[in-house]
Each structure stands twice: as structure tokens, then as C-alpha cells.
Specification:
There is one protein chain. This protein is an all-beta fold and 123 residues long. It contains no helices and eleven strands. Strands 2, 4, 5, 6, 9, 10 and 11 form a seven-stranded mixed β-sheet that branches. The chain has a four-stranded antiparallel β-sheet with strand order 1-3-8-7, with no helix packed on it. Strand 7 and strand 8 (77-82) form a beta hairpin.
Length: 123
């Protein structure tokens, strides 16, 4: 089964940028729907963005125009470019994978998860 490792989190001031990476192994990466979720303290984990087999993308409304998800199938890696960061973006960000071809935003559709990376945006 696929294994996922996130990197790229850190502390950034409001208005700044970060790029998260998620490296996959032990799977046919190009045939996975890849998603990013986040969980803020005291809140439920929520969908952020996803990218499908054909690089079709979908975003939650709060990050549209600020975040960009992309994938490099040659490197088995998915990225989340985060611009114009806000304090409310502070969370642990998780990479997730699913064999489904259809776009999915629910956690239950993703069987495979990384360990998460912390993003903290200071005001």
C-alpha cells in the first residue's frame, strides 16, 4: 500500500507563503487521487484541496485563489503551494491518497494518510 510523507511546514507571518510536499512510495502514484486536509486545534479535520488522475483539481472555498495543488508523477510527489496565508490557516496539514478516479472531499474516501506537518501563521 502507498506510504505518504509530508514536509514543508513551518512558521510564517500572515501574508507569507509556504509550499508543502507529500512524497509517496509503494504504489502507482499516477493512479491515486491525492488530497490535502487540515486540522486546527479543537476542530475537526477538513478538506483543503485534491488533484485527480488527470490533474483535475478541486478546492474548498476558503483557499480558492490562494492555494494551488499540483502533482509531479515522475517524482511521486504532490504539492500544496499556499500564498497569502492567514492566521486561520494555522493547522496540521495532512496528505491523503485514494484509488478512486472520482473527485472526493470526504475523509472516508481516503484510506491512506501521512503523519501531518504543522503550519503556523502568525498575525
Amino acid at each position: 500500500q502507498v506510504q505518504l510523507v509530508e514536509s514543508g511546514g513551518g512558521l510564517v507571518q500572515a501574508g507569507g507563503s509556504l509550499r508543502l510536499s507529500c512524497a509517496a512510495s509503494r504504489g502507482t502514484f499516477s493512479m491515486y487521487l491525492m488530497g490535502w486536509f487540515r486540522q486546527a486545534p479543537g476542530k475537526e479535520r477538513e478538506f483543503v484541496a485534491a488533484i485527480g488522475w488527470y490533474s483535475n483539481t478541486y478546492y474548498t472555498d476558503s483557499v480558492k485563489g490562494r492555494f494551488t495543488i499540483s502533482r509531479d508523477n515522475a517524482k511521486d510527489t504532490v504539492y500544496l503551494q499556499m500564498n497569502t496565508l492567514k492566521p486561520e490557516d494555522t493547522a496540521v496539514y495532512y496528505c491523503a491518497a485514494s484509488r478512486t478516479m472520482s473527485m472526493a472531499t470526504m475523509m472516508e474516501n481516503y484510506p491512506y494518510w501521512g503523519q501531518g506537518t504543522q503550519v503556523t501563521v502568525s498575525s
